[in-house]
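Thanks for the sequence, V.! I ran NAD(P)-dependent dehydrogenase (Short-subunit alcohol dehydrogenase family) right away. Repeating your input here for the record:
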Amino acid sequence: MSKIVIITGGSRGIGAATARLAALRGWTVAVNYQRDEHAAEQVAGNIVRAGGRAVTVQGDVSVEADVARLFEDVERRLGNITALVNNAGILERQARVDELDSARLTRVFATNVVGSFLCAREAVRRLSTRYGGAGGAIVNVSSRAAVLGSAGEYVDYAASKGAVDTLTVGLAREVAAEGIRVNGVRPGLIETDIHALGGEPGRVTRLAGSVPMKRGGSPEEVAAAIVWLLSDEASYVTGTFVDVSGGR
Ligand code: NDP
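Predicted structure:
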């Protein structure tokens, strides 16, 4: 069945790869971005030039008014949405717990946790049969860090992804009878800009040897799991996770 999918943080990395793969399935995609309009326009433009359907939509997922406007904007331009990928996320520079300040904790939890909640809420209000919706699917992008803890590096980030995991399980059960499936993916070490932004370019290459499969993953390998979980092929799958981590 054709879908209309909002992908938060679709301008780069895993989100951009998900937008491309979803479009290849014939789905219409809304590519959300916060700052990088040029990158988002490139992602959507390439999809449209290849015969697909895509629009871009600005919005900071951690800001309630932005999220409301984002969903309204997409629906005005594309019609009723059928799926959401909560992909937008940030990682800050490596630091031990005793070096973390509250401003950083607020930033990390605002985007990774509050952003996921706000977008999930808007999606549920539209998809739930309780509100006259036709059902749909949500995929939350978590991290293997949620399970491993990222000791000495990014415990704040790992804890925020732990919250995303709990949101995934709780929300899945809450809305299962309302036609909405909710699942998560937990990427391992994936080659994207996030590591350079986190202060460590080359991190994936440096740590590749610690991955059982002896390599980092690509955004496309994560996108494949996300698109499958959104698809009707996963029609009896909810409240669970696909780890895309090379066995990490
Ligand atoms: P990138 O840094 O490549 O891309 C992040 C995307 O998120 C960008 O499109 C950025 O948009 C967007 N974004 C950031 N903050 C906000 C915000 N407040 N509102 C809206 N959009 C925002 O990261 P990845 O592709 O690597 O990461 C995608 C997801 O995968 C994240 O949730 C990350 O935590 C998770 N992940 C990644 C792993 C990896 O190894 N790469 C491993 C495990 C999980 P813009 O540039 O316009 O601001």
